[in-house]
Amino acid sequence: MHHKLRFILFAMLVGCVATTAAQTTPSPERVRATLSTDLGDITVAVFPKAAPLSACDFLAYIDEGLYRNASFYRVVRSDNDRGTPKIEVVQGGLPDDAKQRPPIAHETTRMTGLTHNDGSLSLARAEVGTGGGAAFFIVIGKQPSLDFGGARNKDGQGFAAFGRVIEGMSVVKRIHAIKDAAPTDDEYLRGQVLANPVAIKDAKRIDPLPEVCKRK
Questions:
Q1: Inside any domain, residue 184
Q2: 53 contact partners, CB below 8 Å, separation of at least 6
């Protein structure tokens, strides 16, 4: 074989190997995990370097098996939202409060640099410091009112974004489109709580647990 042709073929092979390695080597700035639901798998990436408290708490729920038999139980759309400004999200988490881990301190989007865009993962909360992996939501579309300084929450602190969906957004949107709502005495939640929540059958971490999470 001609030396020049051999060199070109070798260079192409090295390039392919390098590309494959880049695609399969875990990033130190993200940790992937898969949520297996009745409607299909949702693969997410969380960012413990940017949002260590929120991301590591979410991963702890996974590693402790707490999301097994959890569910996506609430959908908020423009046609059933009574908050201001209107948002679109799918909320999931634990059905049993007794299994919740302690709440964590609030990490604002101003602190982390993560914002609420399509597919973002974030922690649900009431007052500041009451959130945690027990209740999280996935954002549909761009929702700046959920960021620090946004008007959705009166305290202006926004919600704690900590990751995003990287595969399975079509599954999230199928859940979001479900309109079979359970009756409720809470007018604010009317039409949002699913009569048949979508079960999270299992949740598994794909990448190694980063050092920052081992210290939490």
A1: yes
A2: 104, 105, 107, 160, 216
